[in-house]
Request: fold
Amino acid sequence: MKMRAAVLREIGLPAPYAQSRPLSVETVELAAPGPGELTLKIRAAGLCHSDLSAINGDRPWPVPIVIGHEAAGEVVEVGAGVNDLAVGDSVVLVFRPMCGACLDCASGRPALCGPGGVSNAAGSLLGGYRRLGFPVRGQSAEAPPAEEFSVLNHHMGCAAFAEYATVSRRSVVKVDRELAFVEAALFGCAVMTGAGAVFNTARVEAGARVAVVGLGGVGFSSLMAAVASGARDVVAVDLVPA
Reply:
């Protein structure tokens, strides 16, 4: 299908971005889902600092690339072998696909999935596939102009700054349809990162004392998770008084 997407073609353009315009909204082509994949209609997407890091070069990615990873959407098509999701289901995108078979996945550390890290670094979906691109006109001395296809990379296996996304089944988590998409999107990165740090890394217990430094999306998620863990004192620290 044809759709609109935010494409990053050059990393490290100077701020302010309102002038340098690092992202261009373009019409691109999205392929149908292959085996083990699905296509989503993106319903909400957040701007995470990791997206800004892709733009300014702090975390370089292969370009051209459709960025965006903190998002939620509705399943509109499922590929062969996807039997646990159906059209109309609500899902949250996950920025590290989990193969389910590597040592880290098998030992309960799916966020460190090796194949997922390899595919992310390459700008592909899990397995090395790319489902984004745009047609270009090729010119040959021996033949008339022909339609060719130039691929686009996927940011963290998601490419969520777009109207639709084709992703691996391993890059989504099903959520309740009653959950608003604008809230569900935050679980794809801010909540998973912040609350995950409290529950899984710091292992905050009831009665603990916790300080959270920096109150962005991740910080506020850490704050709520610390309260939910039963911490006795929770101190929030930020440069902005509000």
User: Anything to note?
Assistant: The chain has seven helices and twelve strands. The chain has a mean pLDDT of 93.
